[in-house]
Amino acid sequence: MKRAWIAFLGTLVLVLPIRIFSMLRYLNPQTGFYSDGGKSVAAASILLVAGAFLTAYFSSRDGRAEISAAPLRNVVAAVLGAVAGIFVLVQSVVGLTAGFFGEGQIFYQIFCGAGILTGAVLMLTAYDLATGLRKIGSHPLLALIPSVWGCLYLVVLFIAYSAVVNLAEDVYHTFTVVFLLLFLFTQAKLFTGIESTKSGKMIYMVGLPAALIALATGIPSSIQFFAAGITAGVVSIGMHMANIALAFYIVAFLSALQAVPAAAETVPAGAVDREDPSQPTALPDTDDQGNKPMLNAEGSISEYAGFLRKACGSGIKFVTAGPSPFYSRNDPTTEES
Questions:
Q1: Residue 156 within any structural domain of the chain
Q2: Considering the entire predicted model, what is its pTM?
Q3: With 0-12 CB in 10 A as exposed, 13-18 as middle and 19+ as buried, what is 309?
Q4: Could you tell me the residue range of the domain that residue 290 belongs to?
Q5: pLDDT beyond 60 at 277
Q6: Contact between residue 194 and residue 144 where contact means Cβ atoms under 8 Å apart
Q7: How many domains does the chain have?
Q8: pLDDT tens for residues 161-186?
Q9: Quick one: pLDDT at residue 8?
Q10: How crowded is residue 133: how many other Cβ atoms within 10 Å of its Cβ?
Q11: Which parts of this chain are annotated as the region Disordered (predicted)?
């Protein structure tokens, strides 16, 4: 996983200066075109695609088989999650009052309503991270609300793109939302246990590229807004800030998740502890190495008892049977029956 983080940071260090310089120097915010013929944005895009691929590839090659599904407690992730929730909630409330152009007005209001719920879910997730609880995991429908919001986010972008053409920045915005959606959906499955703990590897494969693309898109656009008072594309400065907050939350969450050891095999309630010889244990068919108990030529009882002791800690003892006080082998009644 260290190589994935190195690829993430290295790509960010290379791409951000190019993106910031090209947007401030060559980009016309009103048309969305670059005066240098798009050479700078092409270079930044190639580096960003390569970096996103490397982070996903190195994440998939991680040696750890599983990620712990136990409740996670991390103050930094909790704070950044709460900040991201506040940004999404506030921007959604502002969106309801500001409105949307074109025929997507009603759909945009639905998107903003889902954003308010998403902000609340993110703050509930932050509470879980601060306290070490997993309240969100016991409510699968709540956990899936951010994923629904991400889907609506994509639809709103496509509606907006039908009225405005801004090729380069539109591509950045679209891939930002796509990877954020994948992360939110994978996180919901991890929280609710819908998928096995091995899905923890998938959360790195989509989470690191999501944070990388969101930062490479949101930070230059925010700098351009504060420098020129305008941003290229249809995404508002509020949504850019929300995307940046989500990216920092993703980084903090994945960092905290990486520090948690793989989930140990737990003994279900009512199961027998095999380390406790006082507990009754069912007789296994084989020993720890998968070998069946073998008796010697004489069918030694002591050897079989030794196998039971080794395999399951059995305290069973065998004794030689004495004559029965109730019947004898020569009893004619016994023979007839």
A1: yes
A2: 0.72
A3: middle
A4: 274-319
A5: no
A6: no
A7: 2
A8: 766 655 677 888 889 999 999 999 98
A9: 94
A10: 14
A11: 268-296, 317-337
